[in-house]
Design goal:
By secondary structure, the protein is of the alpha/beta class. It has a domain at about 45-230 and about 240-280: Rossmann fold, CATH 3.40.50.620. The protein has helices at about 30-45, 65-80, 95-110, 120-125, 130-135, 140-155, 170-180, 185-190, 215-220, 240-255, 260-270, 270-275, 300-305, 310-325; strands at about 20, 25, 55-60, 85-90, 115-120, 160-165, 205, 285, 290. The radius of gyration is 20 Å and the shape is globular. The structure holds iron/sulfur cluster and zinc ion (2 copies). GO terms for molecular function: ATP binding; metal ion binding; transferase activity; tRNA binding.
Length: about 325
């Protein structure tokens, strides 16, 4: 807000904490947080992300985006009649993971949401740094593979109907633009507000699909949610193509408020077109029974190579034990 006179909220007498230009509104703390919840509710309805009676597994990293997502879904779950369970994976990345775990536990305790905690150290006897060193694969690519498997396996064991991810507008659009520029159109098919479920695969939903990064940051701050402040030591710093595209999109948004949301909606509307080139896995892994395109899933292949044993089945039993010890409704 500019200096001088304090601007009032457009909806009440309280001082405004932000200006939402695309909605032509100045909003106070209360009305901003309500506004964001309403926007997420509209996205849930528009894209049919959740239905009454569903169990939704929310993957929380300890960071601000997934903290805001869990908070919003907890509020909306009462209104829409679905159940929320949180999942956190302790990746074993030193101090960062310790703090992320602490933030996730504090958040779930405050919101009274059941938390499934999976620790790579307990599960595999090694965290991401050790696994990455052994595999000679970039830490983030290995981490992505492990997280995808664990989140999906947890959702299958818990009989969740959807996995909610904290990806927001500014996460999605740069990848959409990048894949369009490279004409990797089927990749765009994965970047919509949701993916469908199958027998051994639980669909992902992105309720923050139309919420920007600055909005999730402000929401987390105004609701005083516990989050890990530092970044993962493996996260990319400096210039990346996605960062440059993000800056470009934000510069357009400044001149044309609402452009980013209109863009995201247009992609969602045509997502069927982008999905045409996608192939779906139809086999089940001979070790763990999860969906795969070959004979053995990527997680079992990786763990067999690094740890001498395909760990998928052990992971599924571990998740069953952990889930049984958490009070679910
Ligand atoms: Fe995993 Fe990379 Fe993200 Fe760190 S930055 S949590 S290693 S994907
Ligand atoms: Zn107000
Ligand atoms: Zn497997």
């Amino acid at each position: 807000m500019s200096s001088g006179k304090v601007l009032k909220c457009s909806l009440c007498e309280e001082p405004a904490v932000t200006v939402v230009r695309y909605a032509k509104l100045r909003l106070c703390r209360k009305h901003f947080t309500e506004f964001i919840c309403k926007r997420v509710l509209k996205a849930i309805e528009r894209y049919r992300l959740v239905q009454k009676g569903w169990r939704v597994l929310v993957a929380i990293s300890g960071g601000k985006d997934s903290a805001a997502l869990l908070h919003i879904l907890t509020v909306l779950s009462k209104q829409l009649g679905f159940e929320v369970i949180a999942l956190h994976i302790d990746l074993g990345i030193g101090e960062y993971s310790r703090k992320a775990r602490e933030a996730a536990e504090k958040l779930c305790k405050g919101l009274e949401v059941p938390l499934i905690m999976l620790s790579l150290g307990e599960l595999l006897g090694a965290g991401i740094p050790e696994l990455a060193a052994k595999s000679r694969r970039p830490a983030c690519s290995l981490c992505g593979l492990v997280k995808r498997y664990l989140i999906n396996a947890a959702a299958v064991e818990l009989r969740a109907r959807a996995i909610a991810l904290g990806h927001h507008l500014d996460d999605m659009l740069p990848y959409i633009v990048k894949n369009f520029a490279l004409q990797s159109l089927s990749e765009i098919g994965k970047l919509g507000p949701k993916t469908e479920s199958g027998e051994f695969f639980v669909g992902r939903i992105r309720p923050l699909y139309e919420v920007s990064e600055s909005e999730t940051t402000l929401y987390t701050h105004l609701c005083n949610l516990p989050v890990v402040e530092e970044r993962c030591p493996y996260s990319v710093r400096g210039e990346s193509l996605e960062k440059e595209i993000r800056e470009f999109l934000n510069s357009v948004e400044v001149k044309r408020p609402g452009f980013k949301i209109a863009f995201a909606r247009a992609v969602a509307k045509n997502i069927g077109f982008y999905r045409k080139g996608m192939t779906s896995a139809t086999n089940t892994c001979r070790h763990c029974g999860m969906l795969t395109s070959g004979d053995v899933c990527a997680f079992c292949r990786l763990t067999e190579r690094l740890l001498g044993k395909p760990m998928g089945l052990d992971v599924r039993s571990y998740i069953k034990r952990v889930s049984a010890s958490v009070k679910l409704s």
